[in-house]
Specification:
The complex is a heterotrimer of chains A (176), B (84) and C (118). Chain A is of the alpha+beta class and 176 residues long. Chain A contains five helices and four strands. Chain A has a four-stranded mixed sheet with strand order 2-3-1-4, covered by helices on one side. In chain A, helix 1 packs across helix 2, helix 3 runs antiparallel to helix 5 and helix 4 runs antiparallel to helix 5. Chain A is elongated and about 60 Å long. Chain B is mainly alpha-helical and 84 residues long. Chain B has one domain. Chain B is built from three helices and no strands. The longest helix of chain B has 26 residues. Chain C has one domain. In chain C, helix 1 runs antiparallel to helix 2 and helix 2 packs antiparallel against helix 3. The longest helix of chain C has 33 residues. At the B-C interface, helix 1, helix 2 and helix 3 of B face helix 1, helix 2 and helix 3 of C.
């Protein structure tokens, strides 16, 4: 039941976002669109409840975590991304690279945490997730510029990949 | 208004540049990378074109294009990895 | 006036990063490094060109609240979120496929994935 409510709320919100500006009820919507949004939310919530949110993971239903996710994306994540782009720009212009694939220990326990961590890694400085070890949730990360000494280490802590903020802690707070 | 049209023209030029890699790319994986870049540029250009033509429906088309291109890229990647 | 300057800056930054991404695709030696240029630079560039559109929509909305400009802004933000998420995931998929196909990272100093592969 909880997974149904979460899925229905989410799909209804996305539908309302897509149809904003269609009328004047509540400033943005027409009454027909609101009715259709309700129908869409119920149908999608019923059909997709098992894919979108499993009943075992109640934490995903916590709205406070969603707010934290938004704060993470506009704050630390965007700063890291800007730094990543300056880094890539520097390497494109100078062509100075030292690539390699390292094994990174994330310490994430859930699939959602691993997914968020992998996507964060892909969009941040000089790193690109290549593969996931399904058993230990370790990530194999291609680095465009391996720091001296890192290539001899068997595994690398995930904190070492981020320069400015402690992104892994944010991801753990959002998704674990 | 000129600035928006200028932006679109620059992006079209970049798409043509990326097509060099698409045609040349020594391996098929390189071609997929170039295709992915072109898809991103098409989405960005469509959003800017919505302002140029004042047709805001273009942005909806861009969203759908991004999602469909994502599915396409995933299938090509699966095929290249020999899982299909 | 300030808004117009901000829009110009966003457009120029966006175009610069898009151009760097495409040049990176042409310049880098192998598929993994090309993916770096592709995912990071073009995603960031597209975020900035879209930011220019959002700023423009905000400015026009203040002038003419009936002109559907809030639709433009909301949908552009949605498109950017979709773009950032799908780009990262498809980069992951391409890299995995390339490694499964046996492409070695060029000039690599270490390759831990190769050692664990069965």
């Amino acid at each position: 039941m909880l997974s149904f409510i979460v899925t229905a709320l989410f799909s209804g919100a996305v539908y309302l976002l897509l149809t904003a500006g269609s009328g004047s009820v509540l400033r943005f919507w027409s009454s027909q669109e609101l009715l259709v949004a309700l129908l869409v939310a119920i149908v999608v919530g019923f059909v997709a409840r098992t894919y979108f949110a499993s009943a075992r993971r109640r934490a995903a239903a916590n709205p406070f975590r969603w707010l934290q996710a938004v704060a993470y994306v506009v704050g630390p994540f965007f700063a890291e991304m800007a730094k990543a782009n300056l880094d890539v720009a520097y390497r494109v212009i100078t062509g100075r690279i030292r690539p390699g694939i390292v094994r990174v220990q994330t310490g994430m326990e859930t699939d959602m945490g691993t997914l968020l961590m992998a996507n964060s890694i892909t969009l941040t400085p000089g790193t690109l997730t290549v593969n996931v070890d399904e058993e230990s949730n370790d990530l194999f990360v291609h680095m465009i510029n391996v720091p001296a000494g890192m290539e001899t280490r068997e595994t690398v802590a995930v904190r070492d990949l981020f320069a400015l903020f402690d992104c892994p802690r944010w991801v753990r707070r959002i998704a674990e | 208004m000129t600035r928006w049209i200028f932006t679109v023209l620059v992006m079209v030029a970049l798409m043509l540049l990326a097509m060099v890699r698409l045609l040349k790319g020594p391996t098929s994986a390189d071609r997929v990378v170039a295709l992915d870049a072109i898809n991103t540029l098409v989405v960005a250009a469509m959003i800017v074109l919505a302002v140029v033509f004042r047709q805001f429906i273009f942005v909806d088309v861009a969203i759908i294009y991004a999602l469909l291109a994502f599915v396409g890229t995933l299938y090509i990647a699966k095929y290249l990895g020999g899982e299909l | 006036m300030i808004l117009s300057t901000l829009i110009w800056i966003s457009l120029v930054v966006g175009m610069t990063f898009n151009a760097l991404g495409v040049i990176g695709i042409l310049r880098f030696p192998d598929v993994y490094t090309r993916l770096h240029a592709d995912t990071k630079a073009t995603t960031f560039g597209s975020i900035f060109t879209s930011l220019a559109v959002v700023l423009y929509a905000g400015g026009e909305f203040l002038k003419d609240p009936e002109g559907q400009y809030e639709t433009l802004a909301l949908h552009t933000i949605l498109a950017v979120v979709v773009l950032a998420f799908t780009n990262a995931t498809s980069a992951h998929a391409i890299a995995r496929a390339a490694h499964k196909r046996g492409h070695k990272p060029a000039r690599a100093v270490c390759d831990r994935l190769e050692e664990t592969a069965p």
